[in-house]
Amino acid sequence: MSNPLLDELDNSGIVKTVEIALPTLARFYPLGEVLDSKADATAMRIQPLSILEESAFTDPMMLLSGRGVSRMVKRVAPMVTEPEKLSDIDVQAILIACRIISRGPDIEVDQSCPSCEKESKLKIDLEDFMMKFTPFTDEESDQFTIVLPEVGQTVRLKPISYKDATEIVMMSVSSEMGMKKYAGIKDDEIFDTAFIQDYKEQFEKMVDNNVTALASSIYYVQTRSEKKIFNREHIKEWLVALPTDEVKEINQRLKIIGKFIQERTKMKFTCPSCKKSNDVHINLDPQMLFTQAVEQEVEKKSTAGSNTTKNRKSNPERILQK
Ligand SMILES: [Zn+2]
Q1: Largest CB tally within 10 Å, which of 18, 161, 175, 286?
Q2: Residues 176-217: pLDDT tens digits?
Q3: What spacing in Å lies between the alpha carbon of 270 and ligand 1's midpoint?
Q4: Environment class of 247 (CB within 10 Å of its CB; exposed 0-12, middle 13-18, buried 19+)
Q5: How far is CA 98 from CA 235, 238, 282, in A?
Q6: For residue 134, how far is its CA from the centre of ligand 1 (angstroms)?
Q7: Of 96, 109, 106, 108, which is closest to residue 48 (Cα–Cα)?
Q8: Spacing, Cα 113 to ligand 1 middle (Å)
Q9: Which residues are close to ligand 1, an ion, with C-beta < 5 A?
Q10: Average model confidence (pLDDT) across the chain
Q11: Does the reported pTM lie above 0.85?
């Protein structure tokens, strides 16, 4: 049943929305999954984030589990049906577009200088930044397909999903902590059976994490008889059995892909301390995008009357990422 209150809001035109193209162009989502089957990845409508929804990002548990982001994406991009499977780069594009129409394009991030390591504030115009989030070109998209020279199977790679990216970070932190306790071990303790058992378990967990991380960059593997395998567990078993050279091929290709994805988050940063210019990569998480906006608004109000803090008002209808 439709809600007449919402219908009136939607038709009034006072709630600004914006259209963007998803960087992946939905090339890595099966039709009707992740996005609604009627969705147009070249023109996704993004709605602003209500002030009442922002609490999802100040809650650390919601943020850590990635649930805050899933919830928000579903809210502001209604054509996304399974936000947790959305590629990380598409999530970033959606969040940035949403921030622009909800709170304006200006943001300041803490940036440490690659030359002198001093930290300072970097001002970013998100509308300019967003221009770099261009859809993958056909040439780039082709890089995701790789025919393994020896076994003849075809691997279709994919940009990592938001959920996998979050889980991999948590996995590597816990595995690092698990392995750290062995650093200061004494010689006679190495022969202790409980120690050996424990170490084995930690080690296996670490190996399994590596396989999981690699599998999360694989969309499907196609057999020589052209059957596409999407099953993550099957892919993991297959990866463990795959000859080293083939694994190396996949890793090399992932490096190339990682490079052109990272290229989209690159910015020139001139350090105010040492005056040196460096390329830096900007990773805007939802906390940076939305909680900072609230702080800035409070600041603006407290300096009311001074013209120097006047912000550029921006209401783009479509952001064309060329
Ligand atoms: Zn510096």
Answers
A1: 161
A2: 777 777 777 777 777 778 888 888 888 888 888 889 999 999
A3: 8
A4: middle
A5: 35, 40, 17
A6: 30
A7: 96
A8: 5
A9: 113, 115-116, 271, 273-274
A10: 85
A11: no
